[in-house]
């Protein structure tokens, strides 16, 4: 048995959990090739994992010095002329309450490089000015961290580049949480407009028997769904294709696929039934109320042009206490994706999906999950296997239908 020593190289799987005003948040991050000689880890992790072996883990509250503090002095009132966003897709971006933007959108930010992509948040605005929160998105959060040792590779010297793992892990989290008691303004400037407004039936008439994510990412979606799916359930796979990403080992009572291409649905071996239905044309679904224990939607929510109506329908067809789980990555069909999706940071997209759920007033116990940092498998059918070192990130949001 090999144990962590002062000069070890190891892979650590981190799980960070925290709460916001409307949801529970889980951030999973696979830290590969962690050097115990040179790298910086969350305070206390090195000392607590030394002497442990593969499969062991430690959990602790993250030290307050590791989480950026919230500083009221970093919330600044600015004239509207200071917001200098570039043209994006031929349109001017306006500041919207609750949204995040890179700091280089603000002219002459004190202490910030003019090309900085570090985010700031608009917390208020009117025609004359806006209030910019320059604090880190995780500022002031209380975070619990768990580190699991998945692999101990070898002993080595101090050569190599120092990695600050907390900086990598906390780059993004926080942006999915909305301001307390204030919905984020996602819905300005025709958010559901698409480059291609032609019939979806024509676009999806050709079967696409391909994977839109690498095999590690698909496995991570299965793990995400394992949090909420169980045997004996009646499951609806919404906007389904040739694969349903169900966790291995569960035995549902039924799995119904609702999608756009007959051949893809027929090729999906997880389905017990399927039907063709265009949600963008008709959000109402041909199911009785209280028909399903779970509804899943994988890599498709970004195409809905009437999401509020669809989420209302999902609530109708779910049984009380039933779960609605949505998962996605950072790829899509450019011509069919909704405009707002392309303008958001990856973590903000979880906030958008959460807000769909909140707006319906029929869901509770909202949870978001991010999964990042995994090495990309060298799959022969993955055209990005040699170009991208990391697996596609996975983001998920789930909640439960309120009980009467």
Automatic annotation (TrEMBL):
It comes from Pseudodesulfovibrio profundus. GO terms for biological process: methylation. GO terms for molecular function: peptidyl-prolyl cis-trans isomerase activity; S-adenosylmethionine-dependent methyltransferase activity. Signal peptide: none annotated. This is Methyltransferase type 11. Keywords: Methyltransferase, Transferase. SUPFAM superfamilies: S-adenosyl-L-methionine-dependent methyltransferases. PANTHER family: OS04G0481300 PROTEIN (PTHR43036:SF2), OSJNBB0011N17.9 PROTEIN (PTHR43036). Residues 254-325 form the Methyltransferase type domain. Pfam families: Methyltransf_11 (PF08241). CDD domains: AdoMet_MTases.
